[in-house]
Amino acid sequence: MKQFFLSAVLLGMLVGCNNSQKQQESSTMSDSTSTAAADSASGLPDRSRFQKDVEGKQADLFVLTNASGMKVAITNYGGRIVSILVPDKTGKLLDVNLGHSSIDDYLENESFFGTLVGRYGNRIGKGTFTLDGKTYQLATNNGPNSLHGGKKGFNAKMWDATPVGTNGLKLHYVSPDGEENYPGTLTVDVTYTLTDDNGIKIDYQATTDKSTVVNLTNHAYFNLNGEGSGSVADHLVEIKADRYTPVDATLIPTGELAPVDGTPFDLRKPVAIGERQDADHPQIKNGGGFDHNFVLNGGQTAEPRLIATVTSPKTGISMDVLTTEPGVQFYGGNFLNGKRIGKSGKPYDKRSAFCLETQHFPDSPNQSKFPTTVLKPGETYKTTTEYRFSVK
């Protein structure tokens, strides 16, 4: 088994790195100054720029590194993936994740770049739903609808961070009853693990003391040509879905589970994103391109299975997506507008990234035919998603 290292722990904390069971235990320690310098030299943001008190808790930058050289940087502000460095076809490490180079950039320019999303990822129509006979009104922060947990969702929260073993990071957050007007105290644990085959595995778990609705996901923006490199139109995308959920003009599902046959949404074989994102189709017009939930073949599963693959012909980098979830939101970066400046110092222009947000379906609390997102006391919400990188 390959050796993994975990660096950049909370300020002042030093963590030894263990080998696998087949190898002798060893440890490596460094102070914050040397760690920051090393991270900067390796193409990652300067750790010191993420070390700041935010709402009474210490923000920091955590780095997972494996023996193949892949690196993943995560901050506990929003549980965000800040950087993903993977080797391209020449062996050069390339950052394929959009994000900012300091905690202040995230605080001043609140976005969903790389963040954990909750309490409810995606949209809830008109910001309202009824549960156990009671109607709840959420903040409408996306036109007439509620998006990604409301005005201050999990993306804007400080998470408690704890290293797990040699290659993982556990994040913990307790969402109080009534936060963003969702019922129930929701206790959430999310664990990031860097696997031995260049996968970022994300395990979600949550419990509640009152009936509530939950739909957790990660909102990483990917560009397999490298963040800040421009359009992703050349990327080849494949999604294992025979159906998708059409939306109205405000991007709320109509309730239909429509076949992809004969539509731009037939991505069952690899297709360049640019070939379909401006197709003459009413659903493409509603989304301004791709911004739709795909009904994954097989529905919700006990174990993660391959549901999507995206490949860059330019760099050779390929990303497989595996999940237990019944749906995935394929978003083509249609609302990026060049106003956000990324880690490379370049603007993030329209369609300069794509997202594959594994999930239950949008507006499920109001759609009886969709898989339920209700979580009750005594139950445990569990899902797993993995983004696995390779070179083709």
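[next item in queue]
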Amino acid sequence: MDDLRYWWDASIAWINSHWLQIGIAIGAGLIIYFLLSMLRGFALKHAQSAEGDFTITHIAGRVIHKTKSFVLAIVAIRLVAGYANPPALILQIIQFVFTISVVMQVAIWAREIVLGLIQRRAAEGHNETLANAMGIIRLLISVALFAIAGIVILDNMGVNVTGLIAGLGIGGIAIGLAAQGIFSDLFASLSIIFDRPFRVGETIKYDTSTATVERIGLKSTRLRSVNGELLVISNTNLLSKEISNYAHLFRRRISFAIGVIYQTTPERLRALPALLEEQVKLAGHDFIRSSFTGFGPSSLDFELVFDVHQEDLGLVAAARTDVGIRLFEALTAAGYEFAYPTQTTFTAAPDGTMIMPWPESPKGKTAASGGARPG
């Protein structure tokens, strides 16, 4: 009670001796507060007049809207407090309230900026998964930012926060180890959403499977294989594999292996690459190369490579069929013969005499016998 009376008497004495400075400080503080309020209102009005949701201007408007009037007031008081020469206790109280208010306001601003950018990303990709996950994302971001704000406030109050930070770190490690599978899939889901290696409706190949993405969830991704099965794979396992995305192929490369018989003349062999190139260009595709590749077991092998500028797999298959039929027609008309595996078997008697695969005539036998008699 004695301390309270002492501070009360000191405050009364300060008011009596500095009433003019106090009045000027209050007037200046009110002017600063109204100027800050007008600035906030003008900025908010300008931000809200911008077209479109989740634009940078829209996010700025959300941040300004979250600016509390109490924070503007305490900022104004802090700016003019030194002019009135208040007692140390009053100045400490003002400084304490100012620190708490500003730190909490900065945490609110940071939360709105982060959430606004995340929602903007979700709106750009029309991502249902991210929209559904906003609740848990908001909770995680709020807990993290306000925990940091609390530590900053305690540190400014002179509290030793080293032990608190260490305790939070150990607690975070324990929680992370206990739920590492859940958090691993959650962060993998966010990685898929933000990095966008694939989207819903796109066809991908991972490991040995080719499938279409049907849904990207918080823990797993559902895929529909080309055979019709529903594949469910965790996001972590999916990202750990090499993924080929077929959705944004502006061209697809097709190759044909063509084998002609060994009886083909050298002139026709030299003319074959030009004939293959001509058929590709007539079909309207980009010719890459055609060349002789080697001597096969039963054929002379050539290779044809060309590009089809289509994204749709059905159109690519139709183009491959068209070029294949064109090649068959052109080669057949030019007199080329396609090779196919053949074998010739030769049989010999025990004495090494060749046995022909057809019966020998009696005349041949007689001649053979006569030639065998000694003269």
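[queue empty]
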